[in-house]
Design brief:
alpha+beta; two-stranded antiparallel sheet; elongated
């Protein structure tokens, strides 16, 4: 992942309620000096809750993960997948439906007509 992806994920998903207990990356324990586009790999990471309320499930953190400890990599993958997909709705002239459907399919998308 890039440093920018890590920071966006942390800000959108974990916020200030979570903190890193311990971790290691292929770039050492600190990534502060990395540029936003620099890529690094998390080898191990453990998180702990530091929020003021009891943690609750979210689209990224299931009740099971809250009971067993959050799986950072699983949460990051789900977040990244959702972030990379967009649902669109638009009106297409009838004579261009085939062309648009082929373009959507070529891009790996799915059409619902």
């Amino acid at each position: 992942m890039t440093k920018a992806d890590f920071e966006a994920f942390w800000e959108e998903v974990l916020t200030d309620d979570w903190a890193i207990d311990d971790w290691s990356t292929d770039r050492g324990d600190a990534i502060d000096d990395l540029a936003p586009g620099d890529v690094f790999t998390i080898k191990t990471i453990s998180l702990f809750w530091q929020g003021n309320t009891v943690p609750e499930p979210t689209p990224w953190i299931s009740a099971r993960q809250l009971d067993n400890g959050p799986d950072f990599i699983q949460m990051f993958r789900a977040w990244a997948k959702a972030r990379s997909q967009v649902t669109m709705s638009f009106t297409v002239p009838a004579d261009r439906i085939g062309e648009i459907a082929a373009a959507v399919t070529a891009l790996g998308g799915k059409q619902v007509l």
